[in-house]
Design a protein that fits this description.
Number of helices: 10
InterPro entries: ExoD
Keywords: Membrane, Transmembrane, Transmembrane helix
Organism: Hypericibacter terrae
Helix content: over 70%
Distance between the termini: 66 Å
Protein name: Exopolysaccharide biosynthesis protein
Pfam family, one: ExoD
Order of helices and strands: HEHHHHHEHHHH
Strand content: under 5%
Shape: globular
């Protein structure tokens, strides 16, 4: 029986120790959903202008681990040991949970076999989308970050339909990034000829 992610996060609040929670503690309790949560959090941060380049590089970690079919992401010890004060964690969950509840009215478990058969393909798509976040194209970070959020929500709620929609949008996003890159190179060559 599938438990919505918003309910899982609320359960985490009840289990959280009073002082601090570590990133490792959160990831351990989310198990397979931790891929979706990690991608979602990184994609939200990537929307902040100036941070998308750094976040684009970070996406290589979960993407590689999906390509090699890990059950859940393994982060460096320095990241998993990072502690958050429990009140700060509670505030963050209180902000995210209502948004997730709204998304859960549309996104629900469908086509679960998609996740087993496409994990490597999704990892490659996330890796390529992360690379496009690194490109210095004005506002070029918005569409890839949005697409990664859709894929992350599909992973959180085990929705194969939304996953395939996200992969189709990834193809569109990558095509637009390739066209923008080609246009920039062609423009530089044209300026050199002047």
């Amino acid at each position: 029986m599938h438990v919505p992610t918003s309910a899982v996060l609320q359960k985490l609040l009840s289990e959280a120790p009073p002082g601090h929670v570590s990133v490792g503690w959160i990831m351990e309790r989310l198990e397979e959903r931790s891929f979706g949560l990690l991608m979602f959090m990184l994609a939200v941060i990537a929307l902040v202008p100036g941070l998308s380049t750094f976040i684009g590089v970070l996406f290589a970690v979960p993407a590689y681990q999906m390509i090699v079919a890990r059950r859940s992401p393994a982060l460096p010890k320095i990241a998993t040991a990072r502690r958050l004060p429990t009140p700060q964690f509670v505030r963050a969950v209180d902000r995210i949970a209502p948004l997730l509840r709204r998304a859960e009215t549309l996104i629900r478990p469908r086509w679960p076999q998609s996740f087993r058969t496409t994990k490597r393909m999704v990892g490659i798509a996330i890796l390529l989308l992360g690379l496009t976040l690194v490109l210095p194209v004005p506002f070029g970070h918005i569409l890839p970050a949005f697409v990664i959020m859709i894929v992350a929500l599909a992973y959180l709620e085990e929705d194969g339909v939304v996953l395939w929609l996200g992969l189709a949008l990834a193809l569109v996003s990558l095509s637009l990034s390739a066209a923008a890159g080609w246009g920039a190179v062609a423009g530089v060559k044209w300026l050199d000829r002047l």
